[in-house]
Amino acid sequence: MGSNIEINDTLKISKARGFPEGLNLEDHLKTPAESQRFVGRTFNFWNTGERLYHRYPTRVFLVEEGPKGDWLYWGHVHILRQTISAGKTSGSFEIVKIYDPDYQRSMTRNEAPEGKSFF
After folding, report:
1. Per-residue DSSP letters for the chain?
2. For 23-69, what is each residue's pLDDT tens digit?
């Protein structure tokens, strides 16, 4: 018996679990400056499993999980609140940095687990 709590420096969520609606790669590639409107905004999330995310002011990577389980790195967030209960973690985060498209591509290719990169 024991606990199975995972410690994360990456918030990997899908749109269904709280990834910001309106933040999408197609628009980001066309007009990267428009994506900056998400910086400073707060969003709610939930994830399966019991996870501890690094607390503010430490940055946490924001990763969008695609429909096929692929990873797309977007930038940095601060976790403002988190609750762990019965196999589920929920909370809120503030976006503090959005990567430019070239850096986003490089970060995703280099940091996503093998076979999980969006690119």
Report:
1. -----EEESEEEE-GGGTPPTT--HHHHHH-HHHHGGGTT-EEEEEEES-EEEPBTTS-EEEEEEPTTS-EEEEEEEEEEEEEEETTEEEEEEEEEEE--HHHHHHHHHHHSPTT-B--
2. 999 999 999 999 999 999 999 999 999 999 999 999 999 999 999 99
What is this structure's pTM?
Answer: 0.94
**First-last CA distance in the chain:** 40
Answer whether CATH 3.30.300.180 is correct for domain 6-111. no
